[in-house]
Amino acid sequence: MERCIFFLVLLLMGREGSCQDEEICSKTAINSCGDCISSGRYCVWCKQPDFTQQGEQDAARCDTRSQLETKGCRPDQIISPVSNVSVVEDAPLSESFSQRGSVQLSPQEINLKLRPGLPTTFTVRFKRVEGFPVDLYYLMDLSNSMKDDLQNVKNLGQNLFKALNDITPHAKIGFGAFVDKTVLPFTNTNKDKLQWPCEERDQYCQKAFGYRHVVSITSDSEKFKNEVEKQNISGNLDSPEGSLDAMMQAAVCVNEIGWRNSSTRLIVLTTDDAFHMAGDGKLAGILEPNDEECHLVNGLYEKSNEMDYPSVGQLATQLERNNIQPIFAVTKEMEKVYTELSKMIPKSVVGVLSDNSDNVVELIKDAYNSLSSKVILKHDDLPKGVKVTYTPICPHPGPPGDTTGVCEKVGVAKEISFDVTVTADSCMEKPSIFYISPQGIEDKLKVTISTHCDCDCNDRPDTTGCNGNGRLTCGTCSCDGGWVGQKCECAIGDKDESAMKAPCRKNGSLTECEGRGDCQCGRCLCHHLEQGGSSYHGAHCECDDEHCEKFQNRLCGGNGKCGCGICSCNEGWEGSACHCAKSDADCRTPGTTSVCSGRGQCECGRCKCDSGYQPPFCIECDSCDDYCVTNKDCIECLAYDNGPLKKTCADSCTSVEHREVTEFTLTKRCKQKDSKNCWMFYSIEQLDSENGTARYRAEVKPIETRECPVLPNFALIILGAVVGVAVIGLFILVLAKVLITLNDRREFKKFVNESRNVKWAEDANPMFVKATITTENPMFTGGDGE
To answer: According to the 3-state scheme, what is the secondary structure of 31-46?
Structure first.
């Protein structure tokens, strides 16, 4: 139930969070009935002559219907123009195709005169004519990878015609081919390669080309077959092909292709590769954007190497504008690519070719049935400030949408309809025209739209209401020349001007009309309020109905009406802002008849609690912590059969109502220790006092939730200490051993390095003198003596 209410609220809420059905009239710069009607869908005008109060401006006549009736305007005096729908042409829907013309959409022309802001709905009917003509243009990729497919297409001419004739006796078919732009890096521009782009030399290969139109739309199957048989494979360098270039020319060259005015137009694109798109031409230095014009000369696209590829958006626009529905017959590897492309091109479908395209006939039949069974109603460019939405009325409506209406699984000769809702946001200077049509169908509905921003008050000649000096128009006076005032009561040029202004000053004040209006002919013409709502009123503009006291941001609390700055309360309400209910029902403690739990007074529908207690019912008490302490012993004996009051519990704790719970619902939570030093958890509240004796209600958690202290395991502690000391000692010994070993190794390594670096001196030690012995033989002369 709650979920239903939630969704109901969502449906009623507008985009900005306000209720869509809430009637609001924005009264800004209102000087006439026409201004009022133009300012919003809910604004109406009261033409009742005596409606405005003294000094109140005529803008007070503009408001919502309910507000004007509340203020005293009679229903027959309220002006509220409505929208008008007039059918200009409504030829009946045709049962079958006729050469003289068939009608698939009805009506064909209507005129709308709309009240600004007010949605207006009319019905459009559609029925697909049985046997309606079909024009099919077969657009084939002739890159080298499609050679097997081309051979099958050459043999499928008769089958294609037969399949189309099963759909309609008025079928025609054409043929075109494409590869890619003949510039680098898309095609090898070597002279010989341009003439023979294929790798194999044992087959005929036609020279490179971008797009070639081969056969115009024809019903001659032999002509189609003969021309297609003349086609041969060509080639290019990169994988993506010039598919979009070819489709653009096939779409915009209406006369060259031979599209008929009244026919279902189909383009069947067969390929095994992806496509180039806008921006890819920059790779070849082609910077000129595609101009979406026809450039076929002798069947060839002559601007192929001069203009960039079209964007997907450009192609989608031209296909839609020319009512052409594409069928993408692609290989399995390319299915995902062209499925994404199909999402951006309305009324298109993707089919998967077999390896040699021998299933193309069945693919085309299935695709046609899919396209023809889906009806999409759309419109062209709308006038500024106009919005159109569609509501399909059929067994299988498509997903909801604002800008199109969709019906699926629509059979031939089955009538469906759409409710079309048109809204004009503001007044239009002159009538405008837009068209509604089913996508892919030539039939159109012409809609001429204008706005209803004038008031027809059916005024009879009446000069008495204007003192004989003017005429009454929609409740206000249009004064004759030389006269002014709300009732045309003042002649321009009266001499005693100061005497006429005296009545506009209150109690001798020097300020005219309290500064809130203009003095005209001795009467105050009061200004609007700053927020543009109602105006000041009263003999001296001393009153307004917008500045009364507010409660919860609502004027007079929403329970009264503001009049001259004072709230007039509805029945059952009182207070300066009508914010106080006279009843004390809102002050009664839930489930009892007690007012404010006996701990306060009911004032203005709310409890004014005694000291220490809190609203809304004076039950919770922030300063009542002693509840927990004073009732602790009773809780222990009642809940756990323990404590100092165990023996006298029945007599000592009669003022405490006890119950066992798993989740607390009472307001005051308590945590206290019992006589065994265990924590008790409970909640408690004071009930209404009886005979001056305080009574309490207590909720206690089960005994297993009570937290009691646990004695330590001394044996485990001692064992842990011994083991810990042993482990720590062992760790210290190992650590010391490791440190000593590392230090010894470091010192030994240092010694070895220093020994290697010693350079021993090569000179003799100066302190050392080698011993010398000199011996002379005096008898030896050095000769050979004896």
So the answer is: CCHHHHHHCCCCCEEE
Average pLDDT of the residues in 623-650? 80
Q: What is the DSSP string of 64-98?
A: -HHHHHHTT--GGGEE----EEEEEE-PPPPSB--
Largest CA distance in the chain: 193
DSSP string of 657-678, one letter each residue: EEEE-SS--SSEEEEEE-TTS-
Beta bridge partner(s), residue 551: 554
* pLDDT band at residue 62 under the 50/70/90 scheme: confident
Cβ atoms 407, 416 nearer than 8 A? yes
All domains of the chain, ordered by start, with CATH?
25-81+457-526 (3.30.1680.10), 84-129+377-451 (2.60.40.1510), 134-372 (3.40.50.410), 550-581 (2.10.25.10), 626-705 (4.10.1240)
pLDDT of residue 155 exceeding 80, the answer is no
375-379/405-407 β-pairing: antiparallel
Give the pLDDT of residue 1. Answer: 43
First vs last C-alpha separation in the chain: 158
Question: How much of the chain, in percent, has pLDDT values that exceed 90?
Answer: 24
Q: How far apart are CA 60 and CA 536, in angstroms?
A: 10
Rounded CA-CA distance 408/388 in Å is: 21
708 with 676: CB under 8 angstroms? yes
Give whole-number Cα distances, 239 to 245, 334, 354, 439, in Å: 15, 12, 19, 33
Nearest-angstrom CA–CA distance, 553 and 559 = 12
Backbone φ, ψ for residue 137 (5° rounding) = -110, 115
Q: What is the pLDDT of residues 229-269, one digit of tens each?
A: 888 888 888 889 999 999 999 999 999 999 998 889 999 99
Q: Are 90 and 125 in contact (CB under 8 A)?
A: no
Name the pTM for this structure.
0.57
41: left (phi over 0), alpha (psi -120 to 50) or beta: alpha
Name every residue whose Cβ is closer than 8 Å to that of residue 761 and which is 6 or more positions away in sequence. Answer: none
CA distance 459 to 450: 24
Q: In the numeric block, which tokens belong to residue 115?
A: 């009240």
264-297 pLDDT per residue, tens: 999 999 998 999 999 999 999 999 999 999 999 9
Catalogue the E-assigned strands of 640-713: 656-660, 668-673, 679-686, 696-700
Name the band, by pLDDT with cuts 50, 70 and 90, for residue 454. Answer: confident
CB 445 within 8 A of CB 437: yes
- CA atoms within 13 Å, Cβ hemisphere of 56: 20
712 backbone φψ class: left, alpha, beta (φ>0; ψ -120 to 50): beta
Residue 21 CB partners (closer than 8 Å, separation 6+): 12
Instruction: Encode 361-416 in three state secondary structure.
Output: HHHHHHHHHHHHCCEEEEECCCCCCEEEEEEEECCCECCCCCCCEEECCCCCCCEE
The DSSP bridge pattern shows strands 134-141 and 171-178 to be parallel
Q: Check the CA dihedral 338-343-346-351 and report its sign.
A: positive
